[in-house]
Structure formats: C-alpha cells, structure tokens
Amino acid sequence: MSQGQKTWAFISIFLCFVSFGLICTSIGTSEWFQTTQNTTNYTVVTDIGLWKICVSEIKQDGWTRKICTYRDLTESRDKTSSGFLQLRLDQCFVIFICLCAFIQLLTHLILLWSLPGCCKSMKKTHLFFIVSVTQLLAVLVGIIGCISFIALQDEIHKSDSSQQYTYQWSFILAWISIALCLLESGIFVVLVKVCFDNVFQSGKFNYYSM
Q: Which chain regions cross the lipid bilayer (predicted)?
C-alpha cells in the first residue's frame, strides 16, 4: 500500500475506536431523553437512559431530591395494547443499541487480530471488505435502535402536553457514533477498490504487503 493508503487506513481505524467510545458512553449514561414539568412549588426533571430513569424534584429554594430506578424491560405495568407496544419498543431500543456496540467491538477485534499477525493468511482486500460490511451492519442496527427510542418517546408522550421534552447528549453521541461507522465503512470500501486495482495492475494476486 502507498503512504496515502496507509494514512487513510490509520484514520479509519482511529475513527473505529472513537465511534466505539461514543456508543459505550451513550450506553453507560442516563442522558438520552429529558422531561421537565413545572408545578407551583417545584420542578420535576426526569432523565431517561438505557438502563435507568432518574427523577429530580427541584424546589424553589434550590433543594433537590433525586431518585433513580432501573427500567423494567421484562413486563409492562400497563396491560393495554399501548403498554405492550411501549414494552416492545423499549426492548428493541436496548437490544439494537447494545448490538451496535457489540458489532463495533467485533470489528475492532478483527482489525487488531488480522492486521499485525494475519497478513500472510488473509488478503487485506478481504479484511477491509469484512470490516466495511460489519461497520455498515452496525449503522443499520444503530439506526433501528435510535428510531425505536424516538417512537417509544412519541408513544409515551403523545397525549401529554403539560411537559417539555428534549433529547439529551447521550442520544446525540449515539447518532455521532453511527455516522462515524458509516464514514468508516465508506473509507474501507474505497480501500478495497484501491487494493484490487493494485493487485490487477501488478499481477500479484497474493497481495499481503502493507
């Protein structure tokens, strides 16, 4: 590979680690969605995350009480059709976001294992193609997870106009991670094409060297 191709490969690998760090941060924090309800004596702020829901009561004198509870993803308290729909959307959200992180981790393991020690047993064209496919798969499942979360919040709050709603920074980090995965997939596809072009031009069909 030329120096330029090595540079792009390094940039792609770096972006892989950045995107994985972002999705792990979003999974581990409880700042996906926030609702705010103002009353006469205090303000109730609810922060919703992947695993927990934190409710803060902020009184006018500045005193704050915060209670966090883990989300129940196995049973719906509301036995209506709307309640079961919310449970399924909640489960879909958690499963697909975690699956997105797992696929990114799998991509890192493939890169770390294959690039240094397996160059003589796997063509880099095949390696780059596999990585581009796994990153694209991470994009798809990540989008499904985020859209499920949006649909969940719309379903929960569709008839409640007394609260203010905002998507928080954990939700934004998840989307940034997904966007980086899409960018990485595109870069690896370009590297696959470049490697194939070099192979056919040189006639070296055992293309193992960096």
A: 7-28, 93-115, 127-152, 172-196
